[in-house]
Write a structure and sequence with these properties.
With 269 residues, the protein is α+β, with helices and mostly antiparallel strands. 28% of the residues are buried.
Length: 269
């Protein structure tokens, strides 16, 4: 490549990060309006879902989330969700499921870099970090980073009557099968959910996670009885019976994980 062509190409490429930087420096409106921003700009939300496995009852971790970590994210206009297991089985360790909702991928990167520059957060968090380093309150956390589906680019706010959430993680045998499952949701499965009262909150194509390829979605219900009734309607619905036999959707999700959750008092969802 001669020098002139190299300079021309380098100059064109330099536009890309500048555009990204301009987007990342936007002053976003409060969390309730972030969804409006995303829909108007054409951006799709990005979801960071964390699953913490606790070593104890979780009280100190809840206090940290409620009083320190979440307020730091809220100052950056990031909406947060917090959940515990709906029912803890005998011998099962307690969990906390934490959700961060970003208006776009640029904001995700920006917040990840700047959260540690938040002086108020660092000052309030240090006591927790000093205490839990020698005596951990969780053994580890799994993290899923996902981008919203085209069908629902912005999350839907659940009704205040909700007592039960369900997070589902669908693993596919390969990337192509995963893309077909995402297409199935975008094209017709979410519409069927709406018909039978499987109440959608968000859907995410997982960009990075413990097991790939995969997708996740979150739904809500008034209680366990209404959840079971909705899924019974779904399984018996002629639309599902039709689409579940279509060759274009065959072998798209071969390993599905379902977790029932209750919202914490400090959750924004």
């Amino acid at each position: 490549m001669n020098r002139r062509n190299f300079i021309q190409k380098a100059g064109a490429l330099s536009i890309i990060p500048a555009t990204g930087m301009a987007s990342s420096l936007k002053i976003f409106p409060p969390s309730e309006a972030s969804s409006s921003y995303a829909s108007q700009s054409g951006a799709k939300e990005v979801y960071e879902w964390r699953i913490y496995t606790l070593t104890g009852d979780g009280d100190s971790l809840d206090s940290f989330f409620q009083d320190v970590l979440f307020p730091a994210y809220h100052r950056k206009h990031i909406k947060t969700g917090a959940f515990r297991l709906y029912k803890v089985k005998d011998g099962e360790k307690k969990q906390r499921h934490i959700l961060f909702i970003y208006p776009d991928i640029n904001t995700y990167h920006q917040v990840k870099k700047t959260i540690w520059d938040d002086r108020e957060f660092r000052q309030k968090a240090q006591a927790f970090y000093d205490t839990t380093a020698p005596a951990p309150v969780y053994s580890n956390f799994e993290s899923y980073l996902s981008e919203a589906f085209d069908k629902i680019p912005v999350h839907r706010k659940p009704n205040p009557s909700r007592t039960l959430f369900e997070i589902r993680i669908y693993h596919s045998p390969n990337e192509e099968a995963n893309q077909r499952k995402v297409k199935m949701f975008n094209k017709e499965e979410i519409d069927l959910f709406d018909k039978v009262a499987i109440n959608s909150v968000l859907y995410g194509e997982i960009l990075s996670g413990p097991r790939m390829p995969a997708l996740l979605y979150l739904t809500w219900y008034k209680d366990e009885a209404t959840r079971n009734e909705a899924w019974e309607k779904f399984r018996d619905h002629p639309d599902w019976k039709r689409m579940s036999t279509l060759p274009e959707y065959a072998h798209t999700a071969t390993n599905n994980q379902s977790i029932f959750l209750s919202p914490m008092s400090y959750s924004q969802l």
